Amino acid sequence: MPEPRWSIDDVPEKPGVYLFRDAAGKVLYVGKARKLKSRLRSYRRPGGDGRLLIRFMEEVAATVETIVTRTEGEALLLEDTLIKQHKPDHNIRLKDDKSFLMLRLDAEPFPRFKFVRAHSPRQDRREGEAKGRARFFGPFASARAVRRTLS
Q1: Which residues, in sequence order, are CB contacts of 35 under 8 Å at separation 6+?
Q2: In the prediction, which pLDDT does 94 show?
Q3: Tens digit of pLDDT for each residue in 135-145?
Q4: What's the pLDDT at 69?
């Protein structure tokens, strides 16, 4: 794997937010961390943190900007604000105020797929599957893309 173009040498071990930017300065991704340096260092390990997004960021991000906050809670609020301000293509979770889009397969004799919005996909999935009422798939960013796939 090529060496990323961005450095973490001067990044502190404090809570904060990081912004991956391309060569033109456009924000590609906004993230938060309890310890900025540890989080960014974890992306440098072989395989990163396992997400394809991070491997992609290592290849295309020209810089990473960090903003130190006093607390992790403050970092969470700042992350949300920056995502809404910059609307980075690679932030799906907090990009808008919508809840998560899930695909539900009813546990009926003739099962049907149905789109549902969930505020906590993991919890909704556990509860629905534990009661044997349905299976859940997702979360998804686009209902249109899922409909196209199912057709």
Answers
A1: 13, 14, 15
A2: 46
A3: 777 777 777 77
A4: 96
**Residue 7 — φ and ψ, nearest 5°?**
-110, 150
Strand partners, 66: 18
pLDDT at 42: 84
Q: Token pair for residue 134?
A: 């349905």
Residue 3 has what DSSP assignment?
P
**Residues sharing a CB contact under 8 Å with residue 117, sequence separation 6 or more, in sequence order:** 98, 99, 100, 101, 102
Q: What fold characterizes domain 16-86? A: GIY-YIG endonuclease (3.40.1440)
Q: Which residue is associated with the tokens 């904060």?
A: 16
Please state, in angstroms and rounded to a whole number, the distance separating the CA atoms of residues 87 and 96: 9
| pTM for this predicted structure | 0.58
What are the start and end residues of each CATH 3.40.1440.10 domain in the chain? 16-86
